């Protein structure tokens, strides 16, 4: 049950990024930060929507691996399954972490720092859950020589 708390936390993190994007872009437009000859803010909003879909699929991959208990029970019984699951975890969490960091880096410009900050918080959430899954995968340092 404790691992199911990840679902609303991930949803809240991605929704916070979208909300920060919306409020920052519309606030900047009202404040006159963007030139009057600029097209529209629809392009960055569409980019944020596309990034949300990609982030959601990466987070879903990590959730499908980390929430079911059978994967960790199988890893406790078989060393090869633990190694394979560890590699898959590492790749999924690394992809999600790099995606959130690059998404934040894309918005790391003046007048857009709240978007970058929320992306950084989502990346920290992914890193924290990745660390807890690795800790669950290797209980009691079972792979010490």
TrEMBL record:
Transmembrane segments: 7-25, 45-68, 80-105, 111-130
Keywords: Membrane, Transmembrane, Transmembrane helix
Protein name: Glucan phosphoethanolaminetransferase (Alkaline phosphatase superfamily)
Organism, as annotated: Lysobacter niastensis
Phylogenetic lineage: Bacteria, Pseudomonadati, Pseudomonadota, Gammaproteobacteria, Lysobacterales
